[in-house]
Amino acid sequence: MQIIVINSQKGGSGKTMLCKHLAVEAERSGDGPVFVIDTDPQGTLTAWHSKREAETPARVDLPFNGMEKGLELIRTHGAAYCIIDTASGRLDIASELFKLADLVIFPVQPSEDDLTAAPVTVQNLKACGVPFVFVLTRVKPNTLITAQAAAILSKHGQVAETLIADRTGYKSPYAKGQTSTEAEPKGAAAQEIAGLWRNIKSCLHENMQESEALKKHG
Length: 218
Ligand SMILES: Nc1ncnc2c1ncn2[C@@H]1O[C@H](COP(=O)(O)OP(=O)(O)O)[C@@H](O)[C@H]1O
Ligand SMILES: [Mg+2]
Known about the structure:
Elements: E1 2-6, H1 15-28, E2 34-38, H2 44-50, E3 58-59, H3 67-76, E4 81-85, H4 91-100, E5 103-108, H5 112-128, E6 132-136, H6 144-154, E7 158-159, H7 168-171, H8 180-183, H9 188-216
Parallel strand pairs: 1-4, 1-5, 2-3, 2-4, 5-6, 6-7
Bound molecules: adenosine-5'-diphosphate (ADP) and magnesium ion (MG).
């Protein structure tokens, strides 16, 4: 089982949106079973999940101090991926979750405020030594700030090739808790999220190969 944590210390950066769309996409593309965990006391992911009629992705409630044991249990139940949504503003909790993660997704909007806030999360990620990838979110097409943000972030870590656009579909309610990608499987958002999921899988794959090589060569 691969554990993906989605974190940014900036509120409203798109963590929960990515968590639900990636979890649904992983199941849709046959990479499940996927479990999601909501560690944000605001419970946005939980509220979304409770509206769903679809059986997947599954959601589990784990107390923070029972996270490691709980994850082991999910692993033994055959989970392929566990995607953990987090709150902003809790560096201590984020660090504990980073220690359990195979990859951290760090959503950043190409905006002055997001870029100014980014170093706090980057320092925390680097201190924990966990692999991470930036995902540019709420991107407006062909804007200078997007190119600048990608250039700045790439000096600090890998930036996912797929950019997530600012789309009404990502924030609109759909019947039965569906994501926009389920409601409009041939739409632009569906293609975008499929592309991002492929990027995330290659990051995980590269990290696995790297750590196997390290083990081999001591
Ligand atoms: N790419 C996007 N396009 C349009 N709206 C978005 C996008 N990403 C997130 N949102 C909306 O922005 C708001 C904040 O996103 P959210 O995922 O809840 O942020 P976080 O979990 O980081 O606080 C929500 O209303 C969400 O629906
Ligand atoms: Mg959230």
